[in-house]
Amino acid sequence: MRIRVWGSRGSIAAPGPDTARHGGNTSCVEVRLDDGQLLILDAGTGARPLGVELMRDPPARIDLLLTHLHVDHVEGLGAFAPIWSPETELHIWGPSSPMATLDERIATYFSPPLFPVHLSQVPATVVFHDAPVEAWTIGGARIVSSPILHPGPTVGYRIEADGRTLAYLTDHEPALGMDLDRVASEWISGHGLAADADLLIHDCQYDEEEYPNRVGWGHTSTSQLAAFARKAAADRLLLFHHDPMHSDDQLDVMTARVRELWGVGETRCSAAAEGMQVEV
Amino acid sequence: MTDAAQRNLVLILARDFASRLATPVFLVDPEDNLIYFNEAAERLLGMPFVEGSVVTAARWSNQVVAADDEDRPLSDEERPLRVALDQRSPSHRSMKIRAAEGTFRRIEVTAFPLFAHADECVGAMSIFWEPPE
């Protein structure tokens, strides 16, 4: 299994010279299984360049796994080139909601006045799926989704394929009301998804000074992420969902802090950056 | 992911809620095992909550002896928490309990099932109210 990061920024795209090394596009990760099967995690603005790349050799089927419907995770959908091709079969998976179906909620963004074209007008064949409660398979991958702590319906994903495990928990605040170092692992949101993952991609939006003023916003601080990764016994960690106000230099400091607190080196802990490819 | 790896998020949030209340709160899994109780409940039970522990249904019902207002012992099936689990509906009643210190107290108990999805009951929560004398 191989992943490529197309967007790792959180909240809103943040292009510019201060963010050029890690990139300014919002959440989007390409996952390729050994047999070539394609999975996409979230459709932030990083989905635009990914779509351009995919159209060089359009895949017959694309599976897009959305963690939630906040705009920074779906705003790239309208500029995702495959959706404008009638040859594309796009399966969109996302968290269920008691209030509206997945397609109704995506259409809230993908329709006037926020977007000029209505979702029902796109030429691709789009199939919507509520992320199942039980594990399911896409090609050779076993997928597990589970609700995680973040405002509104939100899930994380665990993808098991080719004997390896990828856990993707962006937009996650497991430390809300908890001391992660003291509570048993079974009581930690997202632990079941992340446990023993070969690669854990996880929210790290704030540093330790910022978090106290952002409690309940649904994100994780450096010290909390170190505690979460340690309890999950992840082999490798990518800090993700970078705050749009954080420069590359600030992200370097935050990454060093997580390494220090977790007690690992560069090979096991780094910050996700656009263009980064990781063999899981 | 296995069930043992992590509790359902509804239970995690219910525990957080309970930990902030001054009234005794008990949290059970679908098999009626006591998986969490807060500080006020610790005083009632006379034992501390131990992180990672589970109190089986049998031990938990022995720990808190319950009777109706006429001092007739309540069967397990008559306890509000069991009603909430068995009937998947809220339950409320007044009852007497013999708590850890050995004395009987009259209390009001409200219990309700916790549904993660419309068809998925992940446990139940009960709140004990001690009416003023």
Task: Summarize the topology.
The complex is a heterodimer of chains A (280) and B (133).
Chain A: E1 2-7, E2 28-32, E3 38-41, H1 47-54, E4 61-65, E5 89-94, H2 102-109, E6 125-130, E7 136-138, E8 141-147, E9 155-161, E10 164-169, H3 191-194, E11 199-203, H4 222-232, E12 236-240, H5 248-262, E13 269-271, E14 277-279
Parallel strand pairs in A: 3-4, 4-5, 5-6, 10-11, 11-12, 12-13
Antiparallel strand pairs in A: 1-2, 1-14, 2-3, 7-8, 8-9, 9-10
Helix pairs in contact in A: 4-5
Chain B: H1 9-19, E1 25-28, E2 34-37, H2 39-45, H3 57-63, E3 65-67, H4 80-87, E4 91-98, E5 104-117, E6 120-129
Antiparallel strand pairs in B: 1-2, 1-6, 3-4, 4-5, 5-6
- Order of SSEs of chain A: EEEHEEHEEEEEHEHEHEE
In the CATH hierarchy, the third-tier topology of chain A is known as Metallo-beta-lactamase, Chain A
Structural class of chain A: alpha/beta
CATH class of chain B: Alpha Beta
Query: What's the CATH architecture of chain A?
Result: 4-Layer Sandwich
Query: What's the overall geometry of chain A?
Result: globular
Overall geometry of chain B: globular
Q: Compute the CA-based radius of gyration of chain A.
A: 18 Å
Q: Span between N and C termini of chain A?
A: 5 Å
CATH class assignment of chain A? Alpha Beta
Could you list the spans of chain A in which at least 5 consecutive residues all have pLDDT below 50?
none
What does the main sheet of chain B amount to? 6 strands, antiparallel
Radius of gyration of chain B over all CA atoms, rounded: 14 Å
